[in-house]
Amino acid sequence: MTAYFVDTSAWYELVDAAAPRQAEVTTALAEASTLVTTTFVLHELVALLVCRGRREAAQLAGARIRRARSVHLVHPDVAEEESAWRLFLERPDKAYSVTDCLSFQVMRRLRVEVALATDRHFAQEGFSVIP
Fold first, then answer.
1. In whole angstroms, what is the distance from residue 100 CA to residue 87 CA?
2. How many separate helices (H) and strands (E) can be counted in the chain?
3. Burial class for 8, CB neighbours closer than 10 Å (0-12, 13-18, 19+)
């Protein structure tokens, strides 16, 4: 089984037709049998789209992610959120968001080694990143 964790940056590439790496992200998604993401990533994507005046796109993307059979949507518990907050505080030299830190913790727990992301945060934390 090939599982990829999908970050907000990758989901955004799929939604934005003008995104520079959309083709690469689409190809990478097709290679995975399972896509893992969190409710925090989903909420971050929706907030990003709404802030950019794309509420309809946010609703459509959210609905598609939530119902996709290939997507394992993780609902972190309070302990995992606390662990992510501690990691956030431990990395003052990084531009990680709390959502990034939660993503790292979920990846570790589920033993997902590859992140589909367009920023360097996952690589900085030691994960393989595509594209």
1. 10
2. 7, 5
3. buried
Q: 3-state DSSP helix/strand/coil percent for the chain, to nearest 5? A: 55, 15, 30
DSSP 30: H
CA dist 113 and 129 (Å) reads: 9
**CA 34 to CA 32: how far, in whole Å?**
5
| 3-class secondary-structure state, position 64 | helix
Task: Give the largest CA-CA distance in the chain.
Answer: 38
In whole angstroms, what is the distance from residue 13 CA to residue 6 CA? 11
Number of C-beta neighbours around residue 100 at 10 A: 28
Domain boundaries along the sequence of the chain: 3-118
Question: Helix or strand or coil: residue 115?
Answer: strand
pLDDT tens column, 32-67: 889 999 999 999 999 999 999 999 999 999 999 999
Task: Please name the fold of domain 3-118.
Answer: Rossmann fold (3.40.50)
> pTM, whole model, 2 decimals?
0.94
